[in-house]
Design a protein that fits this description.
Blueprint (H helix, E strand, L loop, with lengths): L12 E5 L4 E4 L1 H6 L4 E5 L5 H18 L5 H10 L4 H14 L27 E2 L29 H14 L3 E4 L11 E5 L9 E5 L3 H7 L37 E2 L4 H5 L4 E10 L2 E11 L2 E2 L11 E3 L10 E3 L12 H4 L10 E3 L2 H11 L10 E10 L4 E11 L11 H30 L13 H8 L1 H10 L8 H29 L3 H4 L1 E5 L2 E5 L1 H15 L1 H16 L1
Helix pairs in contact: 2-4, 2-5, 10-11, 10-13, 10-15, 11-13
Length: 563
């Protein structure tokens, strides 16, 4: 490796080829061989949107241009790979034109950093400040293998990944004051928000190859890129008169994104990596992370978030705000948001991401097959204590039938949402059974925010079943009602089995006094709680929710009686 830190040619990105073999690649090879790469192998779930947004997608858009029509997008998609001419253009872009700006340790323009950045107090911090899972400052993960006193050595490739991760996901609150930052006071800068991705739940569509994933994450822009819209490495090419601080300077500003490329490569921090020589080569061991640009608000051109629409917002607030993921909920439990293809203009409700809406439009136009193996990856971070620490990481992926994204055809979408609703309703019924058994035994129901609930284990047990259902429904056509009905019946049977299993465990754990039960007075009313009554209420509720299973049992009883 002649020039460590050369992101274009050094092999630093983990990639899994179409034959399943894992090997590292450089930036240029990752793009030119994208058709032969199944997926990127990255250290954490939150890293995929980072690499796509901060590197791969903006390089492709800036080098080859953004598709302006569905037809242009379709031509790229059906080609299945970058053409020879496109590969040559990518090589020139990452070679003579901008290749020198993708060097991690360049003395004048280090990639995504500020050359010569210094803290007002002259101090530096360990490289652990870039990695949320390692203890640093106020961020002390419970099971971190290192303390702040331990030295973390990052290879150039790992350092590049965590550098970009910090720009997207860094915690909020106080940051080191930098020399040259006029807004730094007493050696620090306060009021910093989290990185842009930390302000919403990220939704990334994926395909069977990296090439198709890149296209699925490329929006069609009929008017092209906005004038003056440049990625962070080409910031000096912006037209004069746009009053924004350069990401290569310590000073920063609060501003809107000037366009798609600026939004994707937004520099939310001013960072400098400090390296040392070790027996294994050059390693990043210290860093400076100070305040960077603040995004005024998440713009509606943001491609990687779903939205919450408010029909009558408060004064000064937008009709749309980005939605966050909920910790403890699998991605399939949020299908109601992912499949919300119609903007609820006159009411409050969810609205899916720009990219998923575009995929639905492309399928409706015949560009994408209804059986296309679309996937969706969701990721997010939960912050605590004024967003100054990371409390939890959220990450999931699931197959998604493209037909369910058709705005005009809601038959499959309604079937999927019915399945999700049934799981949620049975989960609540299980929690109700648990509370009734606790009352029957002389206790109190679980508080909303405390205790382990049977619904959590129940929903977790359905995870693999739902993924099989989603993958199987990719092949269902609208006129194949019998197959869809059989799939929904099989789902209800799985829900019934899982619910019975959890209910049996709850009954087995109930003490003998729950059989006798007790009477609870509430005002002028009396409520009797007994285990037998509780399970009867639960069975009745289950029959009301799982109508197909209930009907199947009724038919079988009638047939048995007739025989």
């Amino acid at each position: 490796m002649a020039d460590e830190g050369d992101l274009v040619h050094d092999v630093w990105l983990g990639a899994v080829a179409s034959d399943g073999v894992q090997r590292p690649v450089g930036l240029l090879n990752a793009l030119c061989e994208a058709h032969a790469i199944r997926r990127l192998e990255l250290p954490v779930h939150t890293m995929l949107p980072v690499v796509l947004r901060q590197l791969l997608v903006p390089v492709v858009i800036d080098a080859l241009g953004v598709p302006r029509t569905r037809q242009e997008w379709a031509e790229r998609f059906h080609r299945g790979c970058f053409s020879r001419d496109e590969r040559d253009r990518l090589a020139r872009y990452l070679g003579p034109r901008y290749g020198g700006r993708f060097r991690l340790f360049d003395a004048e323009r280090p990639f995504a950093q500020v050359a010569g950045l210094e803290a007002l107090n002259g101090e530096t911090k360990t490289a652990a400040q870039l990695v949320p899972s390692v203890a640093s400052g106020n961020n002390v993960p419970l099971f971190s293998a290192l303390s702040e006193a331990d030295e973390l050595l990052l290879s150039p490739g790992d350092a590049a990944l965590w550098l970009l991760h910090a720009h997207c996901w860094d915690t909020a609150s106080i940051k080191t004051g930098a020399v040259g930052d006029p807004q730094a006071k007493s050696g620090k800068t306060t009021g910093n928000p989290t990185g842009p991705l930390g302000q919403f739940g990220v939704v990334v569509p994926t395909g069977p190859t990296l090439y198709e994933t890149l296209l699925l994450n490329t929006p069609v822009l009929p008017d092209g890129l906005d004038p003056g819209d440049r990625p962070q490495w080409a910031w000096d090419e912006r037209p004069a008169g746009l009053a924004c601080k350069s990401p290569a300077e310590a000073a920063w500003s609060e501003r809107p994104a000037t366009g798609l490329l600026d939004l994707l490569t937004f520099q939310a921090r001013r960072i400098r990596l400090l390296s040392c020589e070790t027996e294994k080569g050059r390693r990043v061991h210290r860093t400076i992370v100070s305040a960077g640009d603040r995004l005024a608000q998440t713009p509606e051109i943001e491609p990687h978030t779903a939205w919450q629409h408010t029909a009558k917002p408060k004064k000064g607030q937008s009709h749309r705000r980005p939605r966050r993921h909920t910790s403890g909920r699998a991605a399939w439990q949020g299908l109601g948001t992912l499949l919300a293809m119609t903007l609820p203009v006159h009411s409050d409700g969810p609205y899916t991401s720009l990219l998923l809406r575009q995929i639905g439009d492309l399928q409706g136009a015949g560009v994408l097959s209804g059986r296309y193996p679309l996937g969706v990856e969701t990721s997010g971070l939960e912050y605590g204590t004024q967003s100054a620490v990371v409390e939890n990481a959220i990450g999931d992926d699931l197959p998604l039938p493209v037909k369910a994204l058709l705005a005009q055809d809601d038959w499959l979408r309604e079937a999927l949402l019915e399945c999700v609703a049934q799981a949620d309703q049975v989960a609540r019924a299980l929690d109700g059974l648990n509370n009734d058994l606790r009352r029957a035994a002389g206790g109190d129901p679980l508080p909303r925010d405390k205790g382990s609930r049977p619904s959590a284990q129940f929903l977790h047990s359905l995870d693999a079943t739902m993924r099989r259902l989603l993958a199987g429904l990719r092949t269902v056509d609208e006129d194949d009602e019998e197959l869809l009905e059989r799939a929904q019946l099989a789902w209800e049977q799985s829900v019934q089995i899982a619910a019975d299993r959890e209910a049996d465990l709850l009954l087995a754990a109930a003490p003998p006094r729950a059989v006798v039960g007790r009477t609870v007075k509430s005002g002028d009313k009396e409520f009797v709680y007994r285990s037998g009554k509780a399970i009867g209420i639960f069975r009745t509720r289950l029959a009301e929710i799982l109508t197909r299973v209930t009907e199947e049992r009724r038919v079988k009883r009638e047939e048995a009686a007739a025989a």
